[in-house]
Amino acid sequence: MDLEIPELPFPLRAYGPDGHWSHEDGVLTGRAGPRQDRFVPPTDEALEPASDAPRLLGAPEGDFQLIARVTVGFAAAFDAGVLYVHVGEREWAKLCLEYSPDVPTVCTVVTRGHSDDVNSFTVDGGSVWLRVSRTGRAFAFHASRDGERWTFVRLFTLGDDKETGAALVGFMAQSPTGEGCAVTYDHIEYRPHWPSDLRNGD
User: Fold this and answer.
1) Where is this region: Disordered (predicted)?
2) Do the Cβ atoms of 175 and 33 come closer than 8 Å?
């Protein structure tokens, strides 16, 4: 399934399980099914097949920022709405609003073979603004309670220069322990440049 939305200068394609993706009046909606996730436990010595979850991704060119307000219909631990970056089958990252495990929390996962897992700060209610930015092979994650004042969450690299040019970026829904959850993304915005300062709140 391909989907074009006016806020983004590139088309989106669905990956993984069916996310029932739709876009209407500036709101993107998706749904994770039961026990769907994208995570490779760091406690496993062997590289088991990566679990999967509905993703809707596209290929931006050059530096960019992708911004959205994410709202999650939390029902079970670790239900989440995600901004997602994919460079390879074992190299990807998630910026999540997650029920972690019983409080809405901004958290991140960076996978290089195995996944790490970092909680940043809790959120009142089921919505938060998320932003993923790229310059070269560097990516930055930010989050905001109001869409105005941004908190720096994480800076990292993925892939090599050749791989990064083909990075996919977009949206994901997950419900690792539950029976599924709905996620909406609104106030979607694309900026064709890297933030001027990662830590000043802009």
Assistant:
1) 23-50
2) yes
Structural domains present in the chain:
2-42+50-191 (2.60.120.200)
Model pLDDT for residues 136-159, shown as the tens digit of each residue:
999 999 999 999 999 999 999 998
30-58 burial by CB neighbour count: b if 16+ within 10 A, else e? Answer: bbbbeebbbbbeeeeeeeeebbebbbbbb
Maximum pairwise Cα distance, the chain:
46
Residue that the structure tokens 């977009």 belong to: 170
In which element (H, E) is residue 50 found?
none
pLDDT band at 166 (very low <50, low <70, confident <90, very high): confident
What ranges in 69-133 are assigned the alpha helix state H? none
Rounding to the nearest 10 degrees, give the CA dihedral for residues 85, 173, 151, 9.
50
For the whole prediction, is pTM greater than 0.90? yes
Is 144 in a helix, a strand, or coil? strand
| Strand partners for 111 | 92, 115
Query: Could you tell me if 7 and 185 are in contact, meaning their C-beta atoms sit under 8 angstroms apart?
Result: no
